[in-house]
Every structure is written in structure tokens, then in C-alpha cells.
From TrEMBL:
It comes from Cohnella kolymensis. This is Deoxyribose-phosphate aldolase. Catalyzes a reversible aldol reaction between acetaldehyde and D-glyceraldehyde 3-phosphate to generate 2-deoxy-D-ribose 5-phosphate. It is found in: Cytoplasm. It comes from the Bacteria. The active site is at D93 (proton donor/acceptor), K156 (schiff-base intermediate with acetaldehyde), K185 (proton donor/acceptor).
């Protein structure tokens, strides 16, 4: 069975609430260092702060782009990504153009991801949030294939601000679609160690959660 420390190295310790304070960001980074989580996942305005706090710790900085709706322009997403990388972000979680996906405008979706992939090239890992709660199973498969074709490194289930939760069934579908080449990130409602393990067993290689400390303590968290 996968151990708690092994799970820890797959966790993006997340705080994306708009009212998050500097004190809370500092605490998030301290917790991430204590438990040796993979990264902290924070809003772009806090990237520089977190990057300085985490320097040399082995914990990276993830930030979000086009968040949480995915409805900004490709140019704006590229600019966000470049600015975040310059401030110290090592990983970028971008929200796919969900409206274009639902409209069947697949080339638009692909070009949007390609733009951010180009901004991240050789500098940052790119995860594409497909927001599974808005998609049918066929749309989930198509979104994952478009992300793979566009040069993403990961596909990710959810923002945590949309409908639904990450499920083992969605993780398995996403893993089957992208194959072993891409990472798969399970985000939204992963609040305890058992759920995290089930996501990993289904094919997840990263867990996005605000309940990382509770997971490490064998408790159930209440957040994202």
C-alpha cells in the first residue's frame, strides 16, 4: 500500500481563496516544507512571496492561469504564465477554454493550450484543467487528447470552483486517454488519505488539495 510520505510527494498543497492573507500563505509554505509536499498551489499574486520562502526546500511553486473560468484570451493566459514563471513559479495550472470545448471548437481549445505550452516551454510544467464537472465522458476524452496534442505535461480534473468532485472513474478515463506519457492530477474533494490512495490507484500522479495536513494526520479535511 502506498504510504503517507509517498502520497505527500504527490500533493500540491492548495490555497486559492481570494481572501487568502499573507500570513496564510506563509503558513501554507511552512506546512509544505514540514510535510515535503510536491508544491504549494497559490494565486499568481503570491508567487514571488512563496518562491522566496521555499527556495532550496525541495518544494515547488504552482500557480493558476485563466482561473477559474478559462474564459480569458490566449494572449492573456500566455502573459499570466510568463509573469508567473518570472516570479518563480515552476508549474502552471491553466484552465482550458471550457466554452469553446462545449461548442465543439476543438482547434480553438488546442491553440489556447499551445500558446500557454509555448510560454512554459523548458521553464515550467504545464497542467491543463479540463473541469470534468462540465463535460460528458466523450468531451473529457477529447479534452485530454487536445491537451496532449498541444504539448501539456498533465491533465487535471477540476478547479474546485466548478461543479462536482474528482472521482476514480474520471481519473481512470483520463489516464487511459493520455497513456503513460502525461501526468494526471486529481483535484476537488480529495480530503483524506483513503481518497488520495484511491485516486493514485486509478492513475493519478498528483493530488490537488487544501487538506494536505489533515491527510498526513490521518484525518478528514473540510476544504478544497
Amino acid at each position: 500500500m502506498i504510504t503517507a510520505p509517498q502520497v505527500a510527494r504527490m500533493i500540491d498543497h492548495t490555497l486559492l481563496k481570494p481572501e487568502s492573507t499573507e500570513e496564510q500563505i506563509i503558513r501554507l509554505c511552512e506546512e509544505a516544507m514540514e510535510h515535503q509536499f510536491a508544491t504549494v498551489c497559490i494565486n499568481p499574486s503570491w508567487v514571488s512571496t512563496a518562491s522566496k520562502l521555499l527556495k532550496g526546500s525541495g518544494v515547488g511553486v504552482t500557480t493558476v492561469v485563466g482561473f477559474p473560468l478559462g474564459a480569458t484570451s490566449t494572449y492573456a493566459k500566455m502573459a499570466e504564465a510568463r509573469d508567473a514563471i518570472a516570479s518563480g513559479a515552476a508549474e502552471i495550472d491553466m484552465v482550458m477554454n471550457i466554452g469553446a470545448m462545449k461548442s465543439g471548437l476543438y482547434e480553438t481549445v488546442k491553440r489556447d493550450i499551445e500558446g500557454v505550452a509555448q510560454a512554459c516551454k523548458d521553464q515550467a510544467v504545464l497542467k491543463v484543467i479540463i473541469e470534468t464537472g462540465h463535460l460528458t465522458d466523450e468531451e473529457k476524452k477529447k479534452a485530454c487528447m487536445l491537451a496532449k496534442m498541444a504539448g501539456a505535461d498533465f491533465v487535471k480534473t477540476s478547479t474546485g470552483f466548478g461543479p462536482g468532485c474528482a472521482t476514480p472513474e474520471d481519473i481512470k478515463l483520463m489516464r487511459t486517454t493520455v497513456g503513460p506519457e502525461l501526468g494526471v492530477k486529481a483535484s476537488a474533494c480529495v480530503r483524506d488519505l483513503d481518497t488520495a490512495r484511491r485516486m493514485i490507484q486509478a492513475g493519478a500522479t498528483r493530488i490537488g488539495t487544501s487538506s494536505g495536513v489533515s491527510i498526513m494526520q490521518g484525518k478528514s479535511g473540510q476544504g478544497y
